[in-house]
Amino acid sequence: MPCLKAHKMESAAYMLEHTEESVIEIASKHGYENASKFASAFKSAKGLSPVKYRSVCKRRNISDTASI
């Protein structure tokens, strides 16, 4: 079961970074009916809330693009 949860969080992280889907939509697609429980599980796995993770990824991508 831990492997499945890790896979779900990696998939969710990818979606947060590469799509504009809402956290609620991503949570639902990964089997969470409650966005709060998803956010808690995501933060436990990744160290950041889903919203903060997306924000950090976007800033990182903007700075990577600016240096080209």
From TrEMBL:
Gene Ontology molecular function: any one = DNA-binding transcription factor activity
Keyword flag Cell membrane: no
Record's InterPro entries? Answer: Homeodomain-like_sf (IPR009057), HTH_AraC (IPR018060), HTH_AraC-typ_CS (IPR018062), PchR_regulatory_protein (IPR053142), Tscrpt_reg_AraC-type_HTH (IPR020449)
Key words of the record: DNA-binding, Transcription, Transcription regulation
Q: Where is the HTH araC/xylS-type domain positioned along the sequence?
A: 1-56
Protein name (Swiss-Prot/TrEMBL):
Helix-turn-helix domain-containing protein
